[in-house]
Write a structure and sequence with these properties.
Number of domains: 1
Low-confidence stretches: none
Helix content: 40-55%
Distance between the termini: 31 Å
Structural class: alpha/beta
Order of helices and strands: HHEHHEHEHHEEH
Largest sheet: 3 strands, parallel
Mean pLDDT: 95
CATH topology: Undecaprenyl pyrophosphate synthetase
Number of strands: 5
CATH superfamily: Decaprenyl diphosphate synthase-like
CATH class: Alpha Beta
Radius of gyration: 18 Å
CATH architecture: 3-Layer(aba) Sandwich
């Protein structure tokens, strides 16, 4: 979900307003649109392991928006039968935010509709390091390790399928450390639209583009 700051600058707004529009305004709209379109799993890259390099004032503002979103929008998502999961090393977040993340997972655990994975303090490389450490700690021998072994130790484990489609907004054409293992055969779509302007219609068009592609998985 890229392009918040550039969106704000082009509109002569403070950078914070780009984040506010992106998180408060767009996340819920896109989640509900995805469910209506029949999407089963939606993963949102909300905070990367590299985002900690931003100015403290900007980080604090974004965290305040996270608090507001989890307080104000969680009930509506639950009422829409949406399950929420958190991917990432959340220990660096303030204690009250960690509690909100845990509460969202707990309250939505029995929901059977769209599964929304929020990547928070997530990085594809750190996810693989975590998986390797867990496998080593389990005592498995090298010859016993398979692709299925690694998948079992990724966030979401075997329950989460590899993404069919990865969408990056803002015009940048790179994965930026996102789902490095699971994206092996994903279709990639790079859009010039900034995330604050990405809504239900843009999601629908992205899915229609995906449906026109031929997937061979290397065969």
């Amino acid at each position: 979900m890229d392009g918040n700051r550039r969106w704000a600058k082009e509109k002569s707004l403070r950078i914070w307003e780009g984040h506010r529009k992106a998180i408060e305004g767009n996340v819920k709209r896109v989640i509900l649109a995805a469910q209506e379109l029949g999407v089963k799993y939606l993963t949102l890259f909300a905070w990367s392991t590299e985002n900690w390099e931003r100015p403290d004032e900007e980080i604090d503002f974004i965290f305040d928006i996270f608090r507001q979103v989890f307080d104000q929008q969680l009930r509506e998502l639950l009422n829409n039968n949406i399950r929420i999961q958190i991917f990432g090393e959340t220990d660096r977040f303030p204690a009250d935010l960690r509690e909100k993340f845990k509460q969202a997972e707990t309250l939505s655990r029995e929901k059977t509709g769209l599964v929304v994975n929020f990547c928070l303090n997530y990085g594809g490389r750190s996810e693989l390091v975590k998986a390797v450490r867990e496998i080593v700690a389990s005592g498995k021998k090298a010859e016993e390790i398979t692709e299925e072994t690694i998948v079992a130790h990724l966030y979401g484990g075997k329950e989460i399928p590899d993404p069919d489609l990865i969408i990056r907004t803002s015009g940048e054409q790179r994965l930026s450390n996102f789902l490095l293992w699971r994206s092996a055969y994903s279709e990639l779509l790079f859009l010039p639209t900034y995330w604050p302007d990405f809504g239900p219609e843009e999601l629908k068009q992205a899915i229609e583009t995906f449906q026109q592609r031929e997937r061979r998985f290397g065969k």
